[in-house]
Design goal:
78 residues; single chain; 13% strand; elongated; alpha+beta
Amino acid sequence: MSDPATWAPAETALLLVDMQNDFLHADGAYARGGAKAAPIAALPDRLAPVAAAMRAAGGWIVSTHFTLVPGKGGTPLI
């Protein structure tokens, strides 16, 4: 791994994966299914300053989102 001091912000990205309510929020699909964890719920507040620093340095923010496709009867497939 190279020294972060030598990274070019315009050529560097912060990759955020699945930072959405169904995974993180207390009322999201995973919490309703019994999967709750304080460290997971804390992620948005912990990552916000990292994303702000990346933006301020001219870097990229890349965010992926997982979509639950409704199953038969309209309920999400979880």
